[in-house]
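Protein Record: Sequence and Backbone Structure Tokens
======================================================
Tokens: labelled as protein backbone structure tokens, with as many entries as the chain has residues.
Task: work out the structure tokens from the sequence, keeping to the layout shown below.
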Amino acid sequence: MTTSPIRVALVDDQQLVRAGFRMVIDSQPDLEVVLEAGDGVQALRLLADRAADVVLMDVRMPRLDGLAATARLTVAAGDGGPRVIVLTTFDLDEYVLEAIRSGASGFLLKDTPPEEMLAAIRTVHAGDAVIAPSSTRRLLEHLVTALPADRAPDGPAQQALAALTGREREVLVLMARGRSNTEIGADLFVAEATVKTHVGRILAKLGARDRVQAVVTAYEAGLVRPGDPE
């Protein structure tokens, strides 16, 4: 049975960047670039008429930036819409956090190696938003410094975590450390299917669209802190 390629949309105001991404993505038999846009306004207009599975979204663009475009896209499309991967650099910490809150399924550094970008597209399309665990954790630990140091003990993130069972908290910590479902199962000596059930319940209780949003909540609540042992 032939499987349709994953449809990718490229949104970046630099044509050369888009050309490079397209060349790498279109070289893969299971991936296909279906549209390109130079800003958020154009992206939303094109995506209204052309379906995409995954959107690579730059942050800094004219007319409508990637954050606003991501928020509008995810709100309008709901759970059935495309997954958004935000392209960023370390000097955009607070914007990354805002992008995740806006509905992005994750992020990549602009200088990410091609193979890591390809893996991220496939990972997000599969519904598992742990993108390049080392980069994800490094970025999360970097941006967590932007969070208030005197977070209220009864803040929204803490209240959300209060609904989790002890086992679900363990699973969330391992998710934050970049573990896959298979690895979490091995760490906790449970079946992968059981881990998937725990992850689903965690997302539902936290009101998170995917794993990355859940992990951000764990950092915001202080359940996971920069420098915690692996």
Summary: The mean pLDDT is 82.
